[in-house]
Amino acid sequence: MEETKKKQLAFGSKNYRLMLLGIALLIVGFIIMSLDTEPYGLGFLGITLGPLVVLAGFAVEIFAIMAKDKKQD
């Protein structure tokens, strides 16, 4: 019995690139939040911009998981 099926990865290369982009956005968002100089992080960077970038990172991660790679059909 010869099996000629190739082992396939769970995701395609497009998915992995999007996942790396999402991780990068998450890291940048947390760095932006840590750069806030206001007490307790209550400035624009800590309350508005940083969380929005982190939220965008999570959205990219969800899209990366749900996206179908054309090569894997």
Q: Which percent bin holds the helix content?
A: 55-70%
> How many distinct helices?
2
Low-confidence runs = none
Order of helices and strands: HH
Beta-strand content estimate: under 5%
* Rough outline: rod-shaped
Whole-number average pLDDT? 90
Strands, count:
0
Keywords: Membrane, Transmembrane, Transmembrane helix
Protein name: DUF3098 domain-containing protein
Pfam family, one: DUF3098
Explain this structure to me?
The protein is built from 2 helices and no strands. The chain is mainly alpha-helical and about 70 residues long. The protein has one domain (about 15-65).
Question: Which characteristics define this entry?
Answer:
73 residues, 2 helices, mainly alpha, single chain, 0% strand, rod-shaped
Task: Furnish the topology, listing elements before pairings.
Blueprint: H1 13-34, H2 44-66
Helix pairs in contact: 1-2
Q: How would you summarize what this structure contains?
A:
It comes from Pontibacter akesuensis. The chain has 73 residues and is an all-alpha fold. It contains two helices and no strands.
